[in-house]
Amino acid sequence: MTHPVPIPRDHLSTALQLAADGLPVLPLRQGKVPFGNCRACARNRCGGRPNMKTPGPCACPQPCHGWAAATTDPDVIGSPAWAREWRNAAAVAYHPGGAGLAVVDLDTEAAVTWARATLPPTRTVPSTRGEHWIYRGAMRSVNGVREGVDLKSSMSYARWLGPGTGTMSPLPPAVRELPARVPLPVRPAHVIAASVPGGAGVCRHRTPTYLDRGIAMAEARITEASSGIHAAVYSTFLAVLSAHGRCGCLTDTHVARLFTAAQAKGETARHCTDAWTNARNRLGL
């Protein structure tokens, strides 16, 4: 197998070694996010594979569809179609659930302290802000199960940070129970304080039918997203703010509905707040 394009930072070699060890891999761009879908697969036009439950959602040779692109096939990983992404990659990621693993992503010192006092020891990998605790066994992926703690396993990806230390333990009940036992926090967003354009009369968006239909459509758009959840949440927030952000009709209740829909798809409250702020800044609100 030849690779016509030289790959810097040795990400390709790392990916091939991980794949040989049974970890489905994919490249990550700057910001620790997957590369966007190609034009043929944009907005999931290719149809994907039903329910997106297995890697390789379509026949596209590109590393499309985020976590579902992860593969252990060396011919795919080293193919010319993936060469550009490896050349521009900032890191290597893997699909824990595809390898029968679960990663407890601890983002803060407090979260690490909690894990050491609560969870059985297992393989531990230092991360930028905390640690990854890796267990044998797959489960549902959920972000924000408690402050500073995300669960990455099925239908998710984790950044490869090295082999770590310690012996990998079976996935314990204490981790499996986290999604049901610890409710996801919903933090109220700030009120959109823009005035009614023109300053005359009642804003048309305050009519129950118009505004509620818009919020309901936005909730549905987030709920129905099958891949690229970060992008779907941001684009939905941007659309809502484009329609309603300059007339003062949005309230904390409306925005909380959007945040709730996003968190049900696995987004953290922090990610929701960041996406909302970025959308406001883009529109100059």
Explain this structure.
This protein has 285 residues and is of the alpha+beta class. Helix content is 35%, strand content 14%. It is built from ten helices and ten strands. It has helices at residues 11-20, 74-77, 80-88, 109-118, 173-176, 178-181, 208-223, 229-244, 252-264, 269-283; strands at residues 25-29, 33-34, 91-94, 101-106, 123-126, 131-136, 142-146, 149-152, 158-159, 169-170. Strands 4, 5, 6, 7, 8 and 10 form a six-stranded mixed β-sheet that branches. A hairpin with a 3-residue loop joins strand 1 (25-29) and strand 2. Mean pLDDT is 79; it is low at 1-8, 50-56 and 182-202.
Low-confidence stretches: 1-8, 50-56, 182-202
Work out the radius of gyration: 21 Å
Largest sheet: 6 strands, mixed
**Helix/strand/pairing class, anyone?**
alpha+beta
Fraction in beta strands:
5-15%
Distance between the termini: 52 Å
Number of helices: 10
Number of strands: 10
Overall form = globular
Give the ordered list of helices and strands: HEEHHEEHEEEEEEHHHHHH
Residues in helices, as a percent range: 25-40%
